[in-house]
Amino acid sequence: MQIIAETNRLILKVLENSDIEAMKLFWGDSEVMEQCLGATPHELLHKIQEGYAKCHEVTGISVYAVVEKESGTVIGGAGFN
After folding, report:
1. Measured CA distances, 27 to 7, 20, 39, 53, 56 (Å)
2. What's the pTM value of the predicted model, to 2 decimals?
């Protein structure tokens, strides 16, 4: 896990392939993404994950996974698009 930042409750980390199932719950959910031009089709989420990881590798900034420390669950994404 490549941690970018952390607080008492949350970790910001580079998105990994293992995060795709969690990504379906927010980026892949039409209700959650209603104000953001709609949900991303589940079959494209792996490309998004790869793209954000590559963006971090090349530029040092990206969109990252937000992880709840207590549960270890990816609860969202945040960063620079």
Report:
1. 23, 10, 6, 16, 19
2. 0.87
